[in-house]
Structures are given as C-alpha cells and as structure tokens.
Amino acid sequence: MSSFKVTDSEGQTGQLCNWINQVTLDDIPEELQTRAKYLILDGIACALVGAHLPWSEKAVRAISEMEQSGTSSVFGWEMSVTPLSAALLNSSFIQGFELDDWHSQAPLHSNSIILPALFAAGQHLGTSNIKTSGKTFILAYLIGLEVGPRVGQALYGADMLTRGWHSGAVFGPAASAAAVSKLMNLPAGQIEDALGSACTQACGLMSAQFESDVKRMQHGFAARSGLLAAMLARSGYVGIKRVFEQEYGGFLTMFGQGSQKEPPYRVDEISKGLGTEWKTNGVRVKPYSSMAGTHPTVDCVRKLQEDHPDKMKQLDKIKSIVLELGEAAFHHGGWEAKRPLRAIGAQMSNTYICATQLVDGEVLPAQFRNQNLERDEVWNLVNKSTCRNMGKGNGMRQKVTVAFDDGTELAAEVEAAKGVNPPLTNEEIVDKWRKITVEVIDKERMERIEKTCLELESLEDITVLGELLRGITKNPIA
C-alpha cells in the first residue's frame, strides 16, 4: 500500500507534493481565483467550438465503437463515456482549432489538459454521491495551472519545441495528475505516486503538426494519463518515487537529453517559488485561431493594414514578403508551406497565416473552411513569402516586411503578440466567448453557461456545469 507521506520531503518532487496537499484556496490571491473563472470560460468556449469539427467527429466515432456509455459527459454531444475517454475527447475538442490558451514561459495548453480531466473526475465521483463544489474545482484547476509550467521550465520551456517535442504533451501529464489529485484530496504520498505514474506516460512528437489529426489529441493523451495516474494512486497503486530527481530513467534526466544546455535540465524549477511566484499569471488567451507563434505575424500585418490601408489592399502588387521569427517560432511555424494544406497545417504555418490576414483581415475559424484553404489569392501570397530565423533570445519578437513591385517596402515589428503583453482582460475573454460561440450554441444556453462559470465559487456540485456542456453544438466551419 502506498504511504501517505512523500519519500523525500527535501527533494523537489516531495516539496511539490507536500505543497499540493497543503495549499488551500485562501492561500491563493483573490485576483487569481477570479482570473481562473474567466480562463475556464475560455476553455469551455474552445471545447464547444471544437466538438463537431471533422476530426473531432472521427474521434468520437472511434471511441463510441469501443464503448457505449459511461459516467462522464462528452462536451457538445448527447452522450457519456468512461472518464478516461471523456478526458481524451473533450481535450481534443479544446485543442481542436488552435483557439485555446497557452503559457508564455513554458509552452503548453493548460485548459485542454486540466479541464477535461477535472470534469471527468468530478462527474465520476458524483456517481458515488461524492460532490465536487465549485470552490474545490477552482482550487484543483489552479494547482494544475501552477504545476504544468514548472515542469516545463525545468526543461527550458520552448527549447522542447525547438527540439521537436510537443512540449505541452510532455509537460501535461503531471499537471493533469496534480489537479485531479487535489480534486480528490489525496495525501502527499499518493500525489507522489500519481506524478510518477503520469510522468512515465509523457510523450508528444511535434511532427504531428504536419497534416495529422493526432496533433489535436496529444494534449488529450496528457489529460487522460494524469487522470488515470491519479485514480490509480487513489487505489494505492505505487508510482515512480522522486520522479523529477531520479538520475537513471527519471523524467527530467530522459527528456533533458539532447538539450545542449548546461545543466541539461533545472530540477530546482519544480518547487521554485511555490506559493509566492504564481505561474497562473503566465497563462495567455489567444485572440486568433492559429498557433501562438503565428500571432505576432498577424499583429505585424494588422499594424501595416492600419497604418497603410490603401497600399495594403494592393495585394496583386506585392512582390515579396519576409517574415523574421524568433528561434522557437521559426522551427514551429517557419517551415515551407506547400499546396494542398489541411486546416491543421494551415494553422501552424506563419506564411499561410500571414497571407490569410492580408486577404481576409482576420484569422478566425471561418478562414479554415475547406473551400477557403484552396484560394489562389492566399497561395499566391504564401508563395511570395520567406521565413528567416532571428536566432535565440528574441522570444515572440517578429518583423514582417512587405515589398511592392513599385519599389516600396513597408515593415512592421512587434515585441510580443496581442494577448501576451498585455494579456487579454477578463472583459476581452468574455467578448471572445460570445463571439466564437454565437454560431455553435443558442443564446440562452450561452448565457446560462457564462453565468454558471463566472459564479463558479457558489456552485455546490460541478456536475451542474458539466450537464450544461452536454447537448449538440454546431460545426463552425461547415
């Protein structure tokens, strides 16, 4: 039987597990508790928009062939499946259209990892008459927001993307396990077991971004892995002890290989600043429906369109476009886009997103309808575009230079994308929620979900919100 105490209270894993076990909602600043509700609303918006995308429907069909029913709701559908499958599917919906949050210090999409696991766990516990209150849910959610980026920073954050790992799928299992463990009020020793069992399941190949459906699901693997690990630990199943410090086959040891950093990983980041340095502040909400590294490109083009409206409408006069990107963005989205391209590839490509903003003046779900992916006016601009690597140390800094056939050159540069510095306000998140859900659910349902979510701390049973997320939604790109 697993011990209720951690193996080593002085070690990084032990310190983290003890903190998770002991922290209360009163220990967390009130503004972060409020922010959490708005971030949850954004995650729900992304899930409802993503529930009936073509790749989402394929995933639901595959899962429903294997299981007919369960205890946990599938968002946007009139069905329930097992908790593990619900975590997988609902995560894939949130990640389904590149609209979801990301972290500015350690790239991962926290909502797609944490929310599906918590809803699945809460609904499953409800079948045993164990109610999960809104306050418990918020606290568990915030724990996940704190743990994921710490694991990511221990591996130098965006360096994992540069090396070809899908960073959030690597950092995510620990975040999911930590959140669900807190939801179930596990003792510190069992939290250690949960983290150990979660971390051994971590993986994610970034080559998934090139046309595969599975890119949409890889954070779902993390959500499912963390949920499974926490449920195993709750039953006394023993996981890897001291998983972050282990030298032979440890999580950081193995994923740190090939980092070319000195040291290869930073184990101290796991427990650094717990309770005083809040990683939740680094969660960023996307205003555009594309990979985060393309957002500064959109902002550069928007700046040019605002400053030179007449000239920037002369698309047929454009001779060349040069996009200068930071190293992580260059490796992630600076590859050469070739026709034909599916939505997933289009959303990952800086040149395609640049051309889309030039043509349409916005980058939202409608831009990625099948008929829009083959437009000659977009591809003519993509083929005139070149990406250059600005090198390390540039973060999200980007520059776009547009040259016209009359010799005119227009350039715009941003240090960070809209939504990064400054982050979207709570009011802007609500505006986004209303804007992207208006075409997939009716107004009454939209208002009920919004009100319930923003008053989450008063909810006695989280299954009430879970039930509101059931029910058929529409496909925004049909």
Automatic annotation (TrEMBL):
Residues 15-258 form the MmgE/PrpD N-terminal domain. Residues 288-456 form the MmgE/PrpD C-terminal domain. It comes from the Eukaryota. InterPro entries: MmgE/PrpD_sf, MmgE/PrpD_sf_1, MmgE_PrpD, MmgE_PrpD_C, MmgE_PrpD_N. One of its GO terms (molecular function) is lyase activity. Belongs to the PrpD family. This is 2-methylcitrate dehydratase PrpD.
